[in-house]
């Protein structure tokens, strides 16, 4: 994971150096003006600086979670709440769902400041943000609700396949994921995407 972070950071540094070039590339001459190019360059440099900070903090947090064994700790603690709800803590599906619900909260908390800053500072400063605080948190709540609705059936089905797949586990799991991806491709633009964005038909002239 750290090696991947170092390699991607190396690529990001090369891109960052390219963004510092003030001369309009020949391939863009006649396509965009120097003024628009400077505006894009300033925006990209700002986002690049932010990206370095975000990725560094993320790798620190992820490494600490692995180094200090927090995932097993989350797993053990997540089973404690099931008996309080009258559920069987030895049920693998229920325990897994409880574990995923607990670990899902952590990235929401740690990632929220970065999302807010990216949307309401970087995007707003360069004129790209049209969201309000209310709309931002409304979309966040919608995403969490979708995860609560769609996550348990998918996770439960995957666990059942693993438990009963036998020697053909890989084939069954692949078939399930293939069918799931096809279903999501169908329902996403029709049911999910309209929850977060407004779509209008393109005018054909």
Taken in chain order, the helices and strands follow as HHHHHHH
- Alpha carbon gap, first and last residue: 50 Å
Tell me the overall shape. Answer: extended
Overall pLDDT score: 89
**Helix percentage:** over 70%
Number of strands: 0
- Class by SSE composition: mainly alpha
Give a short account of the largest sheet.
none
Low-confidence stretches: none
What's the total helix number?
A: 7
**Total number of distinct structural domains:** 2
Pfam families: Peptidase_M48_N
Keywords: Membrane, Transmembrane, Transmembrane helix
InterPro entries: Peptidase_M48_N
Protein name: CAAX prenyl protease 1 N-terminal domain-containing protein
Structure description:
The chain crosses the membrane at residues 56-75, 95-122, 143-165, 171-196. This is CAAX prenyl protease 1 N-terminal domain-containing protein. Keywords: Membrane, Transmembrane, Transmembrane helix. The protein has 2 domains: 2-150, no CATH class; 151-199. The N and C termini lie far apart (50 Å). It is built from 7 helices and no strands. The protein has 205 residues and is mainly alpha-helical.
Topology:
Blueprint: H1 2-19, H2 34-67, H3 70-78, H4 81-84, H5 92-125, H6 133-164, H7 169-192
Put the structure in a nutshell:
The protein is mainly α and 205 residues long. It has 7 helices and no strands. The chain folds into 2 domains: 2-150, no CATH class; 151-199.
What tags apply to this protein structure?
CAAX prenyl protease 1 N-terminal domain-containing protein, membrane, extended, 2 domains, mainly alpha
